From TrEMBL:
Keywords: Cell membrane, Membrane, Transmembrane, Transmembrane helix. Pfam families: Cyt_bd_oxida_II. The gene is cydB. It comes from the Bacteria. It is a multi-pass membrane protein. InterPro entries: Cyt-d_oxidase_su2. This is Cytochrome d ubiquinol oxidase subunit II. NCBIfam families: cydB. Its main location: membrane. Belongs to the cytochrome ubiquinol oxidase subunit 2 family. It comes from Novosphingobium jiangmenense. It is found in: Cell membrane.
Amino acid sequence: MIDLTTIWALIIAFAVLMYVVMDGFDLGIGILFPWFGVGEERDQAMNAIAPVWDGNETWLVLRGGGLLAAFPLAYAIILPATYPLIIAMLLGLVFRGVAFEFRWRDPRHRAFWDLAFFSGSLVAALAQGITLGALLQGIHVEGRAYAGGWLDWLSPYSLLTGAGVVAGYALLGACWLTIKVEGSAEDKAFRFARLSAFATLALMAAVSLATPFLAGQYFQRWFTEPMVFWLTPVPLATAALAISLLRSLQQRQPVRPFLYALGLFLLGMIGLGVSMWPWVVPQSISIWDAAAPERSQVFMLIGVGLIMPLILGYTGWAYWVFRGKVGTHGYH
């Protein structure tokens, strides 16, 4: 049955997916940045995301704000459990944001700003991945409050998911660059895309194999009848997309690799949703337990209904205006 709480869970899931897809590729470019040559290659890589990177982070605000407004109890539990990761992510995003501006305006210290762009991107991506692992492995809750320690999020599993997100973002970034850059930068983009594709697929497989053994709920969801029959298409579709991705990269197709990579992330999100549903804090707090009062949900839904089309509209317009290849000084 679809109710207001379920609708809000879907809205936040959509915001998470949009953030991962849209900010994921520009974080991925930052992760790959040191391996591009100083000068024209790095300038092209930076220009490929300069017009859109700050708009991409709108979805991060919507995700965090939506969680606070629609599921305040979950917000009050998840944030204390992951404070070090959230702080690290925000600092990383600040560093890379400053690097975008100062890299062009302070050429004497460009090497420093390039390092800030890379390190900020890496830290933000790693923090997001570890946060995902910490959430999936479970948060210690007592009396509707976080009851764990400062480093409960740190585990081999959360480090594995962290590495998986870093590799996945690098894949998205490299595939985006195959569309946007030219010359030697394009050759490197295809090479990095192939390497990051193998790393992403290997880490996706490792996380997928490890997750069902974190909790009985996950195992039952994936490996008991009749769910096992309903969910079999998910890994099969993932394998088909993986083959298509590697083949398109081998053939140096400029657009399809990015679309296939997006498909892999979408299937990954579906897998996570299947595993977690209906828990917003796995095994502790369901979406209905954490939901705000119905009047609050209705009021916020009206606001989202007005704002979401505007966000999608100006995002689509920005990507349309800045379509095409980039040069060292801008689009052409």
